[in-house]
């Protein structure tokens, strides 16, 4: 009989605990429901606000694109200088903010050597060896950035297909490695082409066979390269030991190294002397060399993304803040 009483008492205690647990969960459920209702009330009408923010973004992108195109057409020199400055400084801000010290060290080394080369290219009178020095440096950076970008792209693709597991590399490590190399290659590829274009303009104007507007100040001899101002010793029909001589469709001849640096590294698609359009497909008839042209076009497109996209996003956020949009 006592045992029966104990069981009944124990059962009553368990029942009380169950009632307490149920009663304890009811306020919690009610609290979550009220919190959910408050969130709905807070964000009620935000669909229209988000639509306004999207329209502001699209309108700002369109207007900014039109203004940038007009600026580039009317004042190309100032546009290129401002774009180059932003390309050079904007990543530095994020590097210091996010503590990317490896990128900062490489950036400092690149900036130091490029500053020296740019200083040499802008001196008057121009030293005879300077054009070759400038094109060698920027062509070296161009090739390194091209190879780095290719390796980074392959690393990303291998990670997406799971091939990193064959080498026992974690997916996150392999993806970080690929994206980092891809970023390094594209960023320094864009930066060196902008610096090379600026240096090419200064050197060609100093030599006198090229001017941005008007006719050249010197007459070009058939035995002189208009890019570097040096003598041409190898005939077009001959095979050179170090480099060949290249003749454009306008019949002006140049050192092959100089005209390739002028067109690919310096982003020029006209003759350095008469400004006739250069047929890049004819110049790079070898199919293995044509990817360099496409890579250069990709870098030109990325310049807008790196230099002006953060500015446009900042303008959009400022407009949203003024209008009270969250």
UniProtKB/TrEMBL annotation:
Domain of life: Eukaryota
A single GO BP: ERAD pathway
Gene Ontology MF terms: ubiquitin protein ligase activity; zinc ion binding
Location of region: Disordered: 16-38
Protein topology in the membrane: Multi-pass membrane protein
Residue ranges of coiled coil: none
Localization annotation: Membrane
Basic and acidic residues bias locations: 29-38
Transmembrane intervals: 53-71, 78-94, 100-119, 140-162, 174-191, 301-323
RING-type domain segment(s): 225-275
Keywords, sorted A to Z: Membrane, Metal-binding, Transmembrane, Transmembrane helix, Zinc, Zinc-finger
GO cellular component, one term: endoplasmic reticulum membrane
CDD domains assigned to the protein according to its UniProt record, in alphabetical order: RING-H2_RNF121-like
Principal subcellular localisation of the protein: membrane
PROSITE patterns: ZF_RING_2
PANTHER family: E3 UBIQUITIN LIGASE RNF121, RNF121 PROTEIN
Protein name, per record: Ring finger protein 121
Organism: Pan paniscus
